[in-house]
Amino acid sequence: MTRTVYVNGEYLPEDQAKVSIFDRAFLMSDGVYxxxxxxxxxLIDFGGHLKRLxxxxxxxxxxxxxSDDEWLAIHRALVAKNAITDGxxxxxxxxxxxxxxxxxxxxxxxxxxxxxxFTQNKPGLADSPAAKVGMKVISIEDIRxxxxxxxxxQLLYPSMxxxxxxxxxxxxxWLVEDGAVTEGTSNxxxxxxxxxxxxxxxxxxxxxxxxxxxxxxxxxEAQMEVVERPFTIAxxxxxxxxxxxxxxxxxxxxxxxxxxxxxxxxxxxxTARLREIYLDEMRKAAI
Length: 287
Ligand code: PMP
Known about the structure:
The protein has 8 helices and 15 strands. The protein is of the alpha+beta class and 287 residues long. It folds into 2 domains: 4-124, D-amino Acid Aminotransferase, Chain A, domain 1 (2-Layer Sandwich), CATH 3.30.470; 130-285, Alpha-Beta Barrel (D-amino Acid Aminotransferase, Chain A, domain 2), CATH 3.20.10.
């Protein structure tokens, strides 16, 4: 089936969708994005993603081109047109396509933002075998820019990190700055010690994960103790459990960090419980 995508107000077959070669995201990574999961045909935590989109755009002084209702309508239309039961909706907003390449930003009055959305079909997204097996991660230096709180399409280093992990026979990389873990290449990172869930505090050093906010709320409600502070790789290697969160992976166990095996190589009970609570609650609240 040819996918139907959305580009600047139009629903088109994917092979007819076009964006200018002068688009600032193509030339300068001057754009932001969001990824919302779809389970049972419904959007997971959509309100959170819209809020972060608005913040990313505002930090970059890009006008939010659509209202919340319009964003929702397009998401729902794409889910319906592409018959997505489980999968995701990707959205991207860029500073637009001025006629020339120039470091200075174009006048927003004459250069409207570019808006692109598409779906990815992922049957059984919530039943990923990786959730039962757990992930292996390596650590690499975090050499990204200093505004990781803005969800830009500037993803080259995270992508390189993912490849370094693959070459090492692992699934992902955790990024380390000044001796402490910031986050994963495309997810937030956590360790578990006893009843404590430890994850780095929010700042410009990490993306403020929408899944992170929900999982920490559920953890507190389940009487777990949440501690927001940096942790080292050595501390993670000695932890009872470790996991990551993201909108498309939900809560995913980590069972090996730089070759050190956690919990006998099996996903831990607290991680499994958080995953279950997260999926249950978010399915109930999906729209
Ligand atoms: N950190 C980074 C660097 C990410 O790319 C992502 C996923 N986009 C996350 C954290 C997790 O954020 P979310 O839970 O909103 O998907």
